[in-house]
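dumping this here so i dont lose it
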């Protein structure tokens, strides 16, 4: 049975149950009038069986309706959200199998309490409309959960990179020159690479590359650095070597049609990063960095330069290896974008391993705490020359909690264009394991600050960096006073 047929069975079963209950019929009553066994009717209502046409006709007659009415897929006003969800095929596009969830189990849940589930689904749909959420928002959230479930480490992709390296006799040294990877694309997979292929399409220059599948042409942005070109080649090699058919033809995802496209984009990114930054040498490099007697930002940047990696590639690899090979599973990654003209900050990428940590995206247009090193470093960027990468470190103690994080942040200017800067932060929860792993953790040169999530939710009264009034705190305090007055009354 196809996925769509599975959904049709669920809807049909709900329709039978709905009509049976409206008629006040028991299973036994319906069994007698339709000529079907009790067990078979039970399987129908659970969405596990779909009767043949002659039995549908008998069932419709027993339910006091027509065959056409029984099969029209409409469940009425109260169950409209369930119908909408199932007919959209959205459940089938979500990666339920990646989390060990069977679609049939979802069907059982809906069949057991359709009205309640319908009300719950209706609530979710209303919330998604209120916050302008689209299907791809759910896809990216599902992807993050999938990555977090696996500590962002996938041995099958690591093995695929090793197999690819052997197959194409790539040199043992890293980084592999972009021209070498481009040559594999052309000779091994029939690509035509157009170095400045987007020059005549100004609206497409937001992309690093666009792939034309009918011509097997890869149109590159002429402003790419050699490192960025090499990374794009690595992603294209991944799509071909891993045989990832469902893919976007742009270097970054504009709007995803199905979850598999989002997942395959993630796999291709992982493959390219692992291709440029080999596993074992990188693990040893990080082990040496953690063993330094004091914090050394220059040594951190030298590691990045050693592998000729962009900050995004370098931080991606850190999140791959540190949980797996150092046992530091309580960490987070954030990427902040800063519009220096308006002094606006947004988070466009985040990852939380083991649990959801305090610094995270806030979609309510509140002002992120300016005490975070992620933001304070960005606010210093106008003093930085184009192409220069700055680094800073901080011990961030989150107000009102016992949680303290070691945060390492790098930032650069001009992303993705002048006036738009970016910072990347890796934060480690400070615990006994971190104390044992990082020798320079207690270096007195590392500044320590009390931070919060957003200014609107922060009760710190003497904050010189505050960007907005603590309106949420004020509302909460007012509500507490009202409750206290009611209790006294």
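and the seq i came up w/
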């Amino acid at each position: 049975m196809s996925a769509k047929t599975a959904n049709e069975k669920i809807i049909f079963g709900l329709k039978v149950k709905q009509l049976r209950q409206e008629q006040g019929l028991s299973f036994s009553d319906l069994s007698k009038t339709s000529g079907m066994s009790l067990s078979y009717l039970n399987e129908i209502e659970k969405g596990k069986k779909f009767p043949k046409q002659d039995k549908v006709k008998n069932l419709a007659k027993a339910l006091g309706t027509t065959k056409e009415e029984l099969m029209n897929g409409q469940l009425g006003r109260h169950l409209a959200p369930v119908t909408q969800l199932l007919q959209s095929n959205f459940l089938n596009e979500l990666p339920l199998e990646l989390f060990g969830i069977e679609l049939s189990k979802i069907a059982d849940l809906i069949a057991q309490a359709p009205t309640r589930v319908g009300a719950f689904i209706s609530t979710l749909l209303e919330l998604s409309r209120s916050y302008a959420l689209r299907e791809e928002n759910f896809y990216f959230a599902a992807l993050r959960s999938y990555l977090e479930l696996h500590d962002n480490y996938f041995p099958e992709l690591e093995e695929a990179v090793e197999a690819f390296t052997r197959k194409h006799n790539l040199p043992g040294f890293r980084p592999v020159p972009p021209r070498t990877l481009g040559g594999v694309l052309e000779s091994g997979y029939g690509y035509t690479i157009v170095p400045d292929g987007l020059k005549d399409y100004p609206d497409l220059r937001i992309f690093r590359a666009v792939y034309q599948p009918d011509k097997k042409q890869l149109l590159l942005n002429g402003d790419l650095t050699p490192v960025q070109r090499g990374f794009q080649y690595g992603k294209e090699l991944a799509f071909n070597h891993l045989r990832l058919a469902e893919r976007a033809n742009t270097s970054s995802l504009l709007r995803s049609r199905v979850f598999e496209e989002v997942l395959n984009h993630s796999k291709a990114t992982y493959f390219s990063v692992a291709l440029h930054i080999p596993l074992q040498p990188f693990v040893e490099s990080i082990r040496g960095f953690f063993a330094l007697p004091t914090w050394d930002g220059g040594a951190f940047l030298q590691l990045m330069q050693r592998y000729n990696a962009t900050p995004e590639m370098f931080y991606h690899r850190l999140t791959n290896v540190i949980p797996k090979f150092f046992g530091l599973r309580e960490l987070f990654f954030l990427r902040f974008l800063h519009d220096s003209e308006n002094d606006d900050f947004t988070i466009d990428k985040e990852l939380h391993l083991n649990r959801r940590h305090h610094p995270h995206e806030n979609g309510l247009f509140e002002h992120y705490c300016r005490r975070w090193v992620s933001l304070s470093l960005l606010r210093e960027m106008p003093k930085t020359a184009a192409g220069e990468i700055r680094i800073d470190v901080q011990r961030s103690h989150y107000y009102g909690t016992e949680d303290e994080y070691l945060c390492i942040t790098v930032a650069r200017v001009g992303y993705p264009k002048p006036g738009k800067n970016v910072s990347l932060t890796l934060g480690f929860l400070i615990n006994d394991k971190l104390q044992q792993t990082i020798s320079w953790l207690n270096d007195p040169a590392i500044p320590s600050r009390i931070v919060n999530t957003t200014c609107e939710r922060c009760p710190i009264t003497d904050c010189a960096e505050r960007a907005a009034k603590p309106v949420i705190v004020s509302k909460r305090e007012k509500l507490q006073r009202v409750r206290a007055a009611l209790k006294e009354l």
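Residues 207 and 252 are 7 Å apart (CA to CA).
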